[in-house]
Write a structure and sequence with these properties.
BirA Bifunctional Protein, domain 2; 18 strands; OB fold (Dihydrolipoamide Acetyltransferase, E2P); about 450 residues; 8-stranded mixed sheet; alpha+beta; 12 helices; binds aspartyl-adenosine-5'-monophosphate
Length: about 450
C-alpha cells in the first residue's frame, strides 16, 4: 500500500484502509486506550490504540519517544473530535526511526527557545509549522518572480560565484585560494549581467547566492544572501528600470496573495501590493523631510538606517503605502559604484535609486555607464586598476547598448513581506560573522 498524506485521508470513505506516516508528536495514554498525534507536512492525524487489542505491544507503542518517525496502516474512522475529522484504528504501527532522548529542542512548545539553540538545531526548529510556512511562502514568492520574468521575456542566467575581481568594493570581499591564485566569492553578478548586455541578451535575470564579508551583525545583513538581479538593454533612462522593478514587485506579491492566502493567514500577515507607479522621492528631498522630522547628522547627511525607518513611517502616514523609491543619489554617496551613470545635466548626481519597503532598503539599481571612455574615466577616478577588469571592459568596446538593472535582496524581501524580526528567520541555514554551521 502507498503512503498518503494526512489531508488526503480526509477524502476517504469511513472504514477505508490507508497508510499514513509522520513524526510522533504526542502520546496521551489513558491506561486502556491511548491517542497518538502524528504530524506530517500537511497536518496532524490521530491514531487510537487499545490495550485489549494490542496486549504487550500497547506498552511498547505508548513509550515510543516523541518525534520518532512511524508508519501506520489502518482503518479510517470519522470523528468530530480531531482537527482533520477522522482518526486511524491501526492494523500495524512501524517505527522507522526512533528519536533519541532528550530532544535538544521542543517542536510543539508554545514558547520559542533562544535563537542560538534554534539555529544550532535548525532541522528540529523547521519542523514547527509556522517556521516551515515561511519557506513555503518564500517558494511562492520565487515562483511569482520567475513568472514575471518569463512573461517579460527575460532569460534566466547562472554566472560564476568564484571571480577574479569584485564589483561592490574591496571591503566586503571573501578571499579564496584558487589553485594558488587569489580569487573572491562573488558579491554580485554585476559585471556578468552587464557583459551579457554586450552579448546581445537584452534582458537577463539571476537568482543566486552573493557573498559579503560584512563585519557587523545586524537583523538585515548576512554574509551569504540570495541576490535577485536583473539587467535590461535599450533603456532611455533609469525610469525604465524603476518601472520594471515596480511591476516586478507588484506581480510577485500579487502572486503570493493569489496562490498562498491560506498560508499568509496562518502567519497572520497581510500584504500590500504596491500600485504602479511607485512614489519617487529624490535623495535631497528625503534629507529635507528628515530634517523637518528633527533628524540631525554628525557626519555627511545621508539616509541611514534610522532615516530609512523615519521615511518609511512618513510615507506610510502621508501616502498610505509601504513602498517608495529614493532617486538621484549623489555621486559621492555611490562612490564604490564605478559602473553607475551620472546624470548628464548634473554630474554630482547619479541615475541611481533604492526601493524602500517598510522602511528598509530592498533594491538598489540604476542606469549603467555604457560609454567605454566615460566608464574607464570613472574607474580611474576611483583608483581602480583597469587590468583587473580587462574582460569586463572589453565587452564595452565593441558595441554596448544603453542598459540598467537592479539587485534585490531576496532574504530581505521575505523578511519584510512576512514582518520577520530578523532576516535569518527567512534563511534555512544562515551565514554570519559567527555562524558557519550547520
Ligand atoms: P547592493 O550592494 O545595494 O547593490 O545590493 C543589492 C541588495 O542586496 C541586498 N543585500 C543584502 N542582503 C542581505 N545581507 C547583505 N549583506 C546584503 N547586502 C546587500 C539588499 C540590497 O538592496 N550590484 C548592485 C545592484 C545593481 O545595481 O544591480 C548591488 O549589489 O537588499
Amino acid at each position: 500500500m502507498k503512503r498518503i498524506r494526512s489531508t488526503d485521508a480526509v477524502e476517504l470513505e469511513n472504514g477505508d484502509h490507508c497508510k499514513l506516516a509522520g513524526w510522533l508528536q504526542e502520546v496521551r495514554n489513558l491506561g486502556g486506550i491511548a491517542f497518538l498525534k502524528v504530524r506530517d507536512r500537511y497536518g496532524v492525524f490521530q491514531v487510537v490504540v487499545l490495550k485489549k487489542e494490542l496486549g504487550d505491544d500497547f506498552d511498547h507503542i505508548v513509550n515510543i519517544p516523541r518525534e520518532s518517525v512511524i508508519t501506520v496502516e489502518g482503518k479510517k474512522q470519522e470523528t468530530d473530535q480531531t482537527e482533520l475529522g477522522y482518526e486511524i484504528l491501526p492494523i500495524s504501527i512501524r517505527i522507522d526511526s526512533e528519536a533519541h532522548k532528550p530532544l535538544p529542542l521542543g517542536v510543539v512548545d508554545k514558547v520559542d527557545a533562544e535563537m542560538g539553540t534554534r539555529f544550532d538545531n535548525r532541522f528540529l526548529d523547521l519542523r514547527k509549522e509556522e517556521k516551515r510556512t515561511i519557506f513555503e511562502l518564500r517558494e511562492t514568492l520565487l515562483r511569482g518572480l520567475r513568472d514575471f520574468f518569463a512573461k517579460e521575456n527575460f532569460i534566466e542566467i547562472n554566472t560564476p560565484k568564484i571571480a577574479a575581481a569584485g564589483a561592490e568594493g574591496g571591503a566586503t570581499l571573501f578571499k579564496v585560494d584558487y589553485y594558488g591564485r587569489d580569487a573572491y566569492l562573488a558579491q554580485s553578478p554585476q559585471l556578468y549581467k552587464q557583459m551579457l548586455m554586450g552579448a546581445g541578451f537584452e534582458r537577463v535575470y539571476e537568482i543566486a547566492p552573493a557573498y559579503r564579508a560584512e563585519d557587523f551583525d545586524t537583523i538585515r545583513h548576512t554574509s551569504e544572501f540570495v541576490s535577485l538581479d536583473f539587467e535590461m538593454s535599450f533603456i532611455d533612462s533609469s525610469e525604465d528600470v524603476m518601472d520594471m522593478t515596480g511591476r516586478m514587485v507588484e506581480h510577485s506579491l500579487g502572486y503570493v496573495v493569489e496562490h498562498s492566502s491560506n498560508m499568509l493567514e496562518k502567519l497572520g500577515v497581510e500584504i500590500e501590493i504596491p500600485k504602479d507607479p511607485i512614489k519617487r522621492i529624490p535623495h535631497h528631498e528625503c534629507l529635507e523631510i528628515l530634517e523637518d522630522l528633527g533628524k540631525t547628522w554628525d557626519e555627511e547627511p545621508d539616509v541611514d538606517t534610522e532615516g530609512e525607518k523615519m521615511l518609511g513611517l512618513y510615507v506610510k502616514e502621508n501616502f498610505d503605502t509601504e513602498f517608495f523609491f529614493i532617486t538621484d543619489f549623489p555621486s559621492k554617496l555611490k562612490q564604490n559604484t564605478f559602473y553607475a551613470m551620472r546624470k548628464d545635466d548634473e554630474p554630482s548626481l547619479t541615475t541611481y535609486f533604492d526601493l524602500e519597503y517598510k522602511g528598509q532598503e530592498l533594491v538598489s539599481g540604476g542606469q549603467r555607464e555604457h560609454r567605454y571612455e566615460v566608464l574607464t574615466g570613472q574607474m580611474k577616478d576611483l583608483g581602480l586598476e583597469l587590468e583587473s577588469f580587462e574582460h569586463y571592459l572589453k565587452s564595452f568596446k565593441y558595441g554596448m547598448p544603453t542598459h540598467g538593472g537592479i539587485g534585490l535582496g531576496l532574504d530581505r524581501f521575505v523578511q519584510q513581506m512576512l514582518d520577520l524580526e530578523n532576516i535569518r528567520e527567512g534563511i534555512l541555514f544562515p551565514r554570519d560573522t559567527s555562524r558557519l554551521e550547520p
